[in-house]
Amino acid sequence: MTSLEEILKMAGNVQAELEKAQARLDRIEVEGRSGGGLVAITASARGRIAKVAIDPSLISPDQKEMLEDLLVAAFNDARQKADEAAQAMMREVTAGLPLPPGFRL
Questions:
Q1: Angstrom distances, CA of residue 83 to CA of 29, 31, 49
Q2: Radius of gyration over alpha carbons of the chain, in Å?
Q3: Which among 23, 31, 62, 72 is most buried, taking Cβ atoms within 10 Å?
Q4: What are the phi and psi torsion angles at 42 (to 5°)?
Q5: Residue 30: is it exposed, middle or buried by C-beta count within 10 angstroms (0-12/13-18/19+)?
Q6: Which CATH superfamily groups domain 4-94?
Q7: Which region, left, alpha or beta, applies to residue 48 given φ > 0 means left and ψ of -120 to 50 means alpha?
Q8: What would the pLDDT profile of 11-41 be if each residue is shown by its tens digit?
């Protein structure tokens, strides 16, 4: 059984790793797409939007509503992928730490 002292020491090490992971998450980029690739959003794994790409065929007044819907869908796709990348990194950082079930950092 792991002592409380050992767990606290491991938690201190995990804190340092978490800080490094947060910095890495800003460098990981994901791309959300919608409309078969007509709209693409590039975001960091922390959710910072870096780029929006819109196919020129969508840039006309009569396509405004569809473009708005595609932007929302692409943003949501990018956000989901960013969340998945962040969760994967957090699992990697906290692997081996004897946390109680359901405990989140």
A1: 11, 12, 13
A2: 19
A3: 31
A4: -105, 130
A5: buried
A6: Nucleoid-associated protein YbaB-like domain (3.30.1310.10)
A7: beta
A8: 777 778 778 888 888 888 989 999 999 999 9
Distance CA 102, CA 57 (A): 48
Which band of pLDDT confidence, cut at 50, 70 and 90, is reported for residue 3? confident
Q: How far apart are CA 68 and CA 18, in angstroms?
A: 36
Helix (H, G, I), strand (E, B) or coil at 66: helix
Amino acid found at 89: M
CA 86/CA 78 separation, integer angstroms: 12
Rounded to whole angstroms, the Cα distance separating 24 from 98 reads 24
